[in-house]
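It is worth pausing here to work through a concrete case rather than discussing structure prediction in the abstract. The textbook approach is simple: state the sequence, then state the predicted structure, then interpret. We follow exactly that order.
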Amino acid sequence: MSDTSSAKPTATGAANRPAMIEAEGLSKFFGNFAAIRDVSFKIHRGEVVAFLGPNGAGKSTTMKLLTGYLAPSEGVARIAGHNMATDRLAGAAVLGYLPENGPLYPDMTPRGLLSFFATARGLSGSRRAERIDKVIQMCALGSVVGKPIGKLSRGYRQRVGMAQVLLHEPEVLILDEPTAGLDPNQIHEVRETIRRLGESKTILLSTHILQEVEAMADRVVFIDEGKLVFDGTIKALIDGKPLEQRFHELTGAGA
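Step two, the predicted structure:
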C-alpha cells in the first residue's frame, strides 16, 4: 500500500474546514477527583489527530465525554456540531467509537455480530448486506466470518471491533488504544487499516505507541494529569528532539 503522508492536510488548511470533534472547557469530576479539567480542542474534517498522555492522564475519560458515553461536569462536547449531552443520537449517527477492549459477544460469529449491529443501526435490505460485505472486506475478516469470536486471536477480534465501528459509514472515528495488546504483525495490520481510513475520515486516535504518532497523525493533542499541555503539529511537538524525550518532558519525567 502506498504511503499517504504526502496527502495529509496542513494545519492551516485543516483549520479552514468544519470542526468535526470539539471539546469546549470539558471537565469531569468524580467526587473531589478531577479526571479532566477545562480541556479544549478542535479537530477539523480530514484530520488524523493522536491523543497522547501517560496512563491515568484522562484520555479515556475525555473520549467517553466526546462520544456522549459520559456527561461532562462542565463544558460541552460536540460531534459534527451536535452537542453530545443534548443531541446525542444525531451525533452518534455520524460517529464510530472503538473503546479500549470494546465488548464483543464471544459466542457469535463476526458475520452474526455485524448483522446484529447493522439492524441496531437501522440498516436493512440490500444496503445492510452491502455494508456487512464491505466492512468484512475492509477489515480482512473473510477467512474467519463463520468462526466464534471467542476463538479468534486478539488481532482478529480487534478487526471485528473495527468492522462494527465502520458499518454505518461514520464521518468521525474515535479510537481508544486500537493496538493495545497486539503483536507487531497485528499492530501493522491495524495501522494500515487506520491509515486507509484517514484518507476520508476525521480520526481521534489514542495510543501509547509513539511510532504510530509519527506514522499516521497530522497533529498531536497531549494531556497530562487531566489538563491539556500541548496541541500542535508533530514537528512542533518534537522540536528537534526524539519524540520519547518530549513525552517525558511534557509529563514532568524529564525534569
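Step three, interpretation. The chain has two domains: 14-94+172-183+202-255, 101-169. The two ends are 41 Å apart (CA to CA).
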